[in-house]
Amino acid sequence: MTSTSVKENVQFHEELRQSVRNVCSQFPDSYWRELDAKLAYPEEFVNEITRNGFLAALIPEEYGGSGLGITEASIILEEINRSGGNAGACHAQMYTMGTLLRHGSAEQKAKYLPKIADGSLRLQAFGVTEPNTGTDTTKLKTFAERKGDKYIVNGQKVFISRAEHSDLMILLVRTTPIEQVKKKTEGLSVLLVDLKEAIGNGLTIRPLRTMMNHATTELFIEDLEVPVENLIGEEGKGFKYILDGMNAERILIAAECIGDGRWFIERATNYANERIVFSRQIGQNQGVQFPIARAHVNIEAADLMRFKAAELFDSGEKCAAEANMSKLLAADASWEAANVALQTHGGFGFAEEYDVERKFKETRLYQVAPISTNLILSYVAEHVLGLPRSY
If you placed Cys at 337, which of 2, 159, 212, 264 could pair as Cys (CB 3.0 to 4.6 Å)? Predict the structure, then answer.
């Protein structure tokens, strides 16, 4: 890349950041605070961010999207969180769409991608996790039996976010019993479920109240009929398709954590400059300023790994290690920054009007989801360092 193209790239990224900030400025802290109090979905925000084309960043231009890379998509989600918002309300459309884009048929892509790009269809739900299997995805119990031109699906899913606010769902099911396959990763398939048709006709959605406002649900599936034409890719190859999108997910979540971290650091810095105790700014005390400075350093370091992983992804190179490490570093750094911001604010950090407690809860999620930090360490130990498999 020439120096001219690098400068142009930097300029484009800054313009992109500013465009996202402009939209987010329409949704101040009070907007998110009120939603959090009511456990409500940010419908107006999602509509506006969609209308401006940001959620279609990764969809190719031929299908009505922007045709941008994961780097640009990560910048969009970072800026949403940095503004004080929560990209978790809509981020899944970025990476779940990839399963359809990379493995769907020409007919499926032509039918769904343009509508996802213009917002007339939402693909926000991703049905993988189950109550009794958790991260052990190959052991999932939801089964789809083919009968003629339909699959009959039975099972249960849990911690499925945005199912009540989506039109379509990517659903991972087993189509061949695990005892009948050579490898446990075989026999899993991906179905594209029309939620509007499914709800009340074999699919029941029950909201799950959680620590933060994340529109999380539990799904009960009983004799749900899904047309065979909604199978994405080949039957039995679904595990590979799902894994294919996980690197993108890791990078995008890392960017959100970096956005959170920068929000916390800015709030902590501003408060430390303004708050007077014992006739002096509390930020004058090294016991206050050093933790803020350390959090800033760690966010900046995590940001470098995020961009390294994104660059590899956009170049079509292997990036699993970098994607996982970027998520780990960013999640840890944002959680550190969250604690620093809360401690800096003291008692006011627990008051809803300061918004720290809301963002504190939101960023804590990423120590656990979409994959726990311990499992990332297990991955690095085994696949990067060559240590024995630990699970």
Answer: 264
DSSP symbols for 356-367? HHHHHHHHHGGG
Q: How far is residue 23 from each of residues 45, 78, 84, measured CA to CA in Å?
A: 9, 13, 12
Separation between Cα atoms, residue 188 and residue 321, nearest integer Å: 24
Residue range 116-128, pLDDT digits in tens: 999 999 999 999 9
- Please state whether beta strands 168-174 and 123-127 pair in parallel, antiparallel, or not at all (unpaired): parallel
Question: Which CATH code for domain 123-237?
Answer: 2.40.110.10
CA 230 distance to own-chain centroid = 24
List the catalytic residue out of 79, 249, 256, 357: 249
Question: Using one digit for the tens of pLDDT, what is the confidence trace for 257-291?
Answer: 999 999 999 999 999 999 999 999 999 999 999 99
Q: 308: which residues sit within 8 A by CB, 6+ positions away?
A: 322, 326
Q: How many angstroms separate the CA atoms of 224 and 150, rounded?
A: 10
d(CA 228, CA 358): 43
Residue 288 CB partners (closer than 8 Å, separation 6+): 272, 282, 344
Angle at 77 between CA 71 and CA 83, to 5 degrees: 130
Q: Does domain 3-118 have CATH number 2.30.40.10?
A: no
Q: Are 256 and 233 in contact (CB under 8 A)?
A: no
Nearest-angstrom CA–CA distance, 15 and 20: 9
* Tens-place pLDDT, residues 39-82: 999 999 999 999 999 999 999 999 999 999 999 999 999 999 99
Among 358, 265, 333, 290, which Cα is nearest to 282's? 290
Q: What is the mean pLDDT of residues 230-254?
A: 95
Between CA 185 and CA 291 the distance in angstroms is 44
249 is catalytic: yes
245-384 in CATH: which number?
1.20.140.10
C-alpha 23, offset from chain centre: 20
pLDDT tens string 343-367: 999 999 999 999 999 999 999 999 9
Q: What is the per-residue pLDDT for 7?
A: 80
Write down the pLDDT at residue 274: 98
φ, ψ of residue 333 in degrees (nearest 5): -65, -40
